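User: Please fill in residues for this 636-position structure.
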């Protein structure tokens, strides 16, 4: 086995492990000296710096971002999303508290950088690369702290363990951003352009990852939460130092656009490796299929759209939670709000008369892309859409809808033909395995603790070769933090704020919609062109759809200050934003057949609580008690 393959195995093993390597690494000099004597020990310490990378769109890792956003609900009260959504959380009862974990990894990055030159078994070239890796990781961990908690305590060197931590206050937000950018810039020269060129070390950062993370950081810094937000005027350290500059700066949007465009330019000019939106016809198929394209971008390993990802991914855990019973745990439930956000097949919203949306009744005809009633063709993605006789609410929707949402009466696509009837009641055993989410159905709510609270299940990320009944899941694939579609959305969002008529807005927005099989937004909604407010509304909606369940929605609604807003354009059961108040799904306790119309009624499944203090995650009270110079986030 090649040495680098052995190293890759070590990366995977350490990243998947739940053990904290740092807890096992004493700081006494004798023990530390041993670490740098040989390559194996030195690289083991390097991989400990990777060990705190979060898995953010799977509740198996307990990250709350999907279930605590307005796009999804988790039925299980044992997960932190349950208490967050009803407002029963705070500094004294945090379950997803990454503050200490990220700082452990940050400290380890300094220790590694300061000592790796002592290892005589590493080449000078590898030492440069490894130093660049830990600088990237340091910047990334600080970015995650900034995203979750706001201004952090900036530690920019290896501090003695017995330091007086009471002398380390929080650092102003803009300075935090500058330091993260500096780390990414310093890491950039000594990393390869893309590990796609040499796939042995996929999962490590590269130049493209540096540019991609910079785009994420600058976009958040430009957003209303941090750009001119007067609500943070009194957010100060104990000595009176303001932690947020409350003066609006258009330049921050320009910086965000520049950062995103740098990624796009690198992708478009690359001669080393192909970086592009994933399309099935450019990856093995002869004919373009929007459904297979938007489905497989999340299923094909290390495809051309992936910009920054790691090998640490529990796809099995995600599929177990999302797949219908029997065999799955059946509780990751998309909200009605997300279902409503998807476009019609002709590119209009469900609120547009031209869209042809019908709320009631059953479809007289199948979707235009439902080509035949062959189970294998459906499973393989060649035939997709709604079937004749399904509820009209789900008829004639766009490809991303069918790739993301499993609704009542639709076949469970991942199951082998021989097992399909297991998902059906006796009266429905017809070889199709249509998911029964109505009250008395096999996957319904009556008498079952693990059920969908909304009448929907997540279809996105579920591999077509999985078979939940047999406990057969597709298994390993990368966990993607950033993909090219997200960068396109970053770019057009930033451009819109200072140059809403820029032609690049249409150019890159069209690419996303074309891949989804939709016409240009400016063909269906020409009235928004050049209007910053209207374009922003539709750009945010495009993010909601394109990046659903990817841990984007939680942070987008917060950085755009939408979580506490009241939607005055729509009725309460059709509102598009606001994380407080009634949340809707279907009437999951009703119905005894697919034809039970009482099931298909918009029904409140939860009344959620959102207060302005929840725009930021609180810092644990234990951390506040340990450092008397550390101020708590506003409102907590």
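Assistant: Residues filled in for all 636 positions:
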């Amino acid at each position: 086995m090649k040495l680098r393959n052995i190293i890759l195995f070590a990366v995977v093993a350490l990243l998947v492990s739940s053990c904290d390597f740092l807890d096992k690494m004493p700081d006494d000099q004798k023990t530390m000296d041993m670490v740098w004597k040989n390559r194996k020990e030195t690289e083991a310490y390097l991989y400990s710096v990777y060990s705190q990378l979060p898995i953010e769109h799977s509740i198996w890792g307990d990250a709350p971002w999907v279930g605590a956003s307005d796009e999804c609900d988790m039925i299980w009260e044992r997960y932190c999303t349950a208490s967050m959504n009803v407002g029963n959380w705070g500094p004294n009862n945090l379950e997803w508290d990454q503050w200490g974990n990220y700082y452990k990894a940050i400290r380890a990055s300094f220790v590694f950088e300061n000592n790796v030159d002592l290892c005589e078994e590493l080449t000078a070239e590898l030492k440069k690369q490894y130093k660049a890796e830990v600088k990237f990781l340091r910047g990334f961990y600080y970015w995650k702290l900034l995203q979750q908690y706001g201004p952090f305590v900036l530690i920019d060197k290896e501090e003695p363990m017995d330091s007086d931590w009471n002398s380390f206050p929080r650092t102003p937000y803009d300075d935090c951003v500058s330091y993260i950018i500096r780390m990414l810039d310093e890491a950039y020269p000594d990393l390869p352009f893309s590990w796609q060129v040499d796939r042995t070390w996929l999962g490590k950062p590269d130049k493209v990852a540096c540019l991609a993370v910079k785009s994420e950081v600058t976009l958040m810094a430009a957003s209303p939460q941090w750009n001119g937000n007067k609500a943070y005027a009194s957010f100060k350290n104990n000595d009176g130092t303001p932690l947020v500059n409350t003066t609006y700066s258009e330049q921050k949007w320009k910086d965000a656009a520049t950062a995103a465009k740098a990624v796009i330019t690198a992708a478009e000019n690359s001669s080393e490796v192909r970086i592009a939106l994933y399309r099935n016809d450019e990856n093995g198929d002869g004919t373009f299929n929007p459904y297979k394209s938007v489905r497989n971008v999340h299923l094909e390993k290390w495809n051309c759209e992936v910009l920054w990802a790691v090998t640490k991914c529990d796809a099995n855990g995600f599929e177990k939670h999302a797949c219908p019973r029997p065999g799955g745990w059946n509780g990751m439930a998309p909200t009605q709000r997300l279902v409503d956000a998807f476009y019609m097949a002709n590119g209009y919203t469900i609120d547009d008369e031209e869209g042809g949306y019908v709320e009631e009744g059953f479809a007289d005809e199948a979707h235009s892309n439902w080509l035949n009633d062959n189970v294998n063709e459906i499973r393989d993605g060649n035939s997709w859409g709604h079937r004749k006789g399904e509820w009209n609410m789900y008829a004639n929707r766009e490809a991303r809808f069918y790739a993301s949402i499993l609704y009542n009466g639709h076949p469970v696509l991942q199951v082998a033909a021989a097992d399909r009837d297991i998902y059906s009641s006796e009266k429905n055993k017809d070889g199709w395995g249509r998911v029964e989410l109505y009250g008395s159905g096999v996957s319904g709510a009556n008498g079952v603790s693990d059920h969908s609270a909304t009448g929907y299940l997540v279809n996105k990320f579920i591999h077509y070769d999985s078979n939940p009944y047999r406990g057969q899941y597709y298994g390993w694939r990368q966990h993607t933090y950033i993909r090219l579609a997200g960068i396109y959305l970053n770019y057009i969002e930033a451009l819109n704020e200072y140059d809403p008529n820029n032609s690049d807005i249409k150019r890159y927005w069209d690419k996303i919609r074309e891949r989804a099989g939709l016409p240009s937004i400016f063909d269906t909604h020409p009235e928004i062109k050049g209007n910053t407010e209207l374009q922003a509304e539709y750009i945010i909606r495009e993010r909601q759809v394109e990046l659903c369940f990817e841990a984007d929605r939680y942070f987008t609604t917060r950085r755009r200050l939408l979580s506490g807003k009241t939607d005055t354009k729509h009725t309460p059961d059709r509102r598009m934003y606001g994380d407080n108040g009634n949340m809707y799904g279907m009437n999951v306790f009703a119905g005894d057949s697919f034809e039970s119309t009482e099931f298909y009624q918009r029904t409140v499944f939860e009344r959620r609580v959102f207060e302005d203090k929840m725009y930021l995650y609180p810092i644990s009270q234990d951390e506040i008690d340990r450092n008397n110079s550390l101020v708590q986030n506003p409102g907590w």
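For context: Residues 124-149 form the longest helix (26 residues).
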